[in-house]
Amino acid sequence: MLHRRTLLRSAATTGLTACIGAPLPALAQAPIETVRVIVGFPPGGTTDAFARRVADKLRGNYAVNALVDNKPGAGGQIGVTALRESPADGSVMLLTPASMLTIYPHTFPKLPYKIDDVTPISTALYTAHGFGVGPQVPANVKTLRDFLDWAKANPGMANYGTPGAGSMPHLVAALLERASGVPMKQIPYRGSGPGIQELLGGQIAAFSSPLGDYLPYLQSGRLRLLAVTGTTRSKFAPEVPTYAEQGFAELTMREWYGIFMPPRASAAVTARAHAALRAVVAQKEVIDFGTPLGLEAIASPTLEDFARTLKADADLWGSYVKRIGFTAES
Fold it and tell me: Is residue 329 part of a domain?
């Protein structure tokens, strides 16, 4: 899946010359007739909405026509499986959060695909994960250490919600449990929305979720964000310390959204797609889309960079999942 350096240099150079807000760079080949961007989730969610912006920006230069093909089901698995069987001529891409490829292979014993069933093209978005508390937790709890002390002293109330069992936010909180030695009960929800509402209503003590889920409520004081993942503080909530700053050095992971092609895609096809997508991700409309959601638009410098990121993250989550002992059947 790693491709020739000459093609990679050409792709990177083409992408870097695109100005923010400018049209895609001229590509050597004529546009393909139609590009189809697969999304493994229903219309209306973040992944779908972002895919529609990407498709719109690919239209007219990379492809004459561009459309989003929603294939929801099994937490994104159906979308990955659909890509594997698609033509490898540049006409089909997949936009997916990282977890489908970095976590699922370690938590689902009968996953219908392998990590080698995709060709990595580029990252598109990054998000940190946050740990917030609501009105059930006393106002004098202002730091993550304060919360852990409170949870230890109040074991019957020591719980946290997540967007779903086995999601990255769940596993981040589970790693916090083990690193701190403070047992807490996970309460999984079907997505972040219902859990955030119960956090605000005082039905649960804490919530682990993507950073963007908290942003609308921080100014009102209805919840307190105690920690974020990442090696540095998020530009979207610079006042919130990282887990690492508070003594949990391992909890630096962020989730990315990546773009992939089928496993048989040639070096020429992937280099062309990478150049086009770097230019797309650099455009102001795409960057602005992510800002209110706590999403940072970042494309991989080269195809090789993304391939290394994918493998490193998959290996890292494999070790974490083994430590936590979680499976989709547990």
Answer: no
Q: Which domain holds residue 206?
A: 129-246
Strand partners, 242: 228
Domain count of the fold of the chain? 2
How far is residue 81's CA from residue 86's CA, in Å, rounded to a whole number? 9
Q: Where are the alpha helices (DSSP H) in the chain?
A: 5-16, 46-58, 77-84, 99-102, 104-107, 144-153, 168-180, 192-200, 215-218, 267-281, 284-290, 303-324
Last residue of a domain, one of 222, 246, 270: 246
Q: Are residues 52 and 162 in the same domain?
A: no
- Phi and psi torsions of 113, nearest 5°: -150, 165
187 and 112 belong to one structural domain: no
pLDDT digits (tens, 9 = 90+) for 191-235: 999 999 999 999 999 999 999 999 999 988 889 999 999 999 999
Residue 288: C-alpha distances to residues 136, 295, 306 (Å) = 34, 9, 23
For residue 241, the domain's CATH number is 3.40.190.10
pLDDT digits (tens, 9 = 90+) for 42-96: 999 999 999 999 999 999 889 999 999 999 999 999 999 999 999 999 999 999 9
- Any residues with CB less than 8 A from the CB of 220 and at least 6 apart, and which? none
Same domain, 103 and 36: yes
- Burial class from Cβ neighbours inside 10 Å (0-12, 13-18, 19+) for residue 30 reads exposed
Report the interhelical angle of 303-324 vs 5-16 (nearest 10°): 100
Question: How many other β-carbons are positioned within 10 Å of the β-carbon of residue 142?
Answer: 12
Specify whether 212 is located in the same domain as 286.
no
The Cβ-side half-sphere exposure at 319, using a 13 Å CA radius, reads 6
pTM: 0.88
